[in-house]
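Example 454, ligand 3'-deoxy-guanosine-5'-triphosphate.
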Amino acid sequence: MLPSACKRLHAGLQAVRAWSLWELPRWLPAFVLSVTVVYLAAVGLAVSTVHLSGRDLLVFGALLGCIAATVELTKRAGENAGVTKDVYAVWELPIAILLPPAYALLAPLVQYALTQWRIRRVPPHRRIFTACAVGLSYGLASVVFHSLAATPAGLLPRAPLRAAVWLLAVVAAGIVQRACNELLVLPAVKASDPGLRVKDLLWAQERFQNDVAEFCVAVLVTLGIAISPLTIVFALPLVTVLQRSMRHAQLVNASRVDSKTGLLNAGTWEREAATEVARAVRTRTPLALVLIDVDHFKSVNDIYGHLAGDMALRAISRTFRIFLREYDLAGRFGGEEFALLLPQTSAADARQIAERVRVHIAEMPISISEDPASEPVQVTVSMGVAALGTTWERTTGSQLTDLLAAADRALYKAKNAGRNHVVMVTDRETVGGVASRSDLTRSSGRFSPSAASD
Ligand code: GH3
Ligand code: MG
Ligand code: MG
């Protein structure tokens, strides 16, 4: 019988071995370990050279208290319901600016430990990695600030000018922090979910506005604390309001998307698609619509279970994000039905895109279990494509409804053709109800692009 300490160690090693980290692309665990090692080395160096002072410890303690309070507020505001915007920079930037780098390196560790404990448990390697990356970015910002601000501010004669230079140095350090943070975190985020677009992560309008607001408040709070640490007392309620307003905007945004797949929900998709179709008709630019239905999806649920079915839906949705452009609209239309709207896309191009998506999905192994030994699931989809081409004036009634009806008929034909097919129809055949000549073309594994031209 093993002694209990050995048993615990064994259980611990088993748990580490079960981390999904080891299933990710091979370079990623190496990257995560490197960041962790560099972080530990930086902490070792910074802590061994730091000069402890009672005032620094007091300010650090007060700001850690604010971080803990923000964690509690976040918990109450529902981060565990998936709402994730936070405002920790308001406390961590002052630590980086006003205290030696050792404190800036350590603060995110406390924040992520509290988040793991109080808000939501995620695989520990994720929290450790993020804490190390964020810690390193604030540590670097602290070093940058102290090397910048020590020199020019001291030489400037007048106080207002000194304050302006000081503020600019804070902003420069903040920019360095953000850049370093994104550089370390984004490759890992992208590798663990290849469907995510870096552009969406970095420059989504709402995220950008929130980040700017958070940063500006952080700069003001830093300035306030530099003048008097009592500022912390006045900053806490302000931060609460800021956090609440950001969450409100996030919730509004969340009401636009389908929670299971992250695509637009049916109502939002229809509203936005109707606007796009009207614009295409007005400006006489081409546009295509694709309806997608997963083949024999009921059997997937019956054989592998409903959760596996959900994973398949998410994997299919990620495929759309890989293939579509910024301004295309991808929506979840119903249970296992999706709709894509492709503005400024000709019939031939739409069919090529649909074909690529179909092939990608048919060849994509969908992992449905954490157990690496379990067999991945494979699914296929059928697609109906309708395109507005050159005859908009024939279109009557609701333009989107006409296109949807045409795509639906094409989808029906794709199903009847044996599934795992793309069938397309242009406006000449159905949209607007004018049937001048049949323009139905069908493709499957035998697809050749030349057949798509109309
Ligand atoms: P076909 O090839 O003719 O489309 O066959 P099918 O089995 O895909 O079509 P059917 O309409 O009979 O079944 C659709 C199934 O999709 C039934 C339903 O349980 C399942 N479904 C709908 N929404 C969800 C969901 O959110 N998650 C999961 N796992 N299954 C869903
Ligand atoms: Mg269906
Ligand atoms: Mg189906």
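Summary: The longest helix spans residues 159-192.
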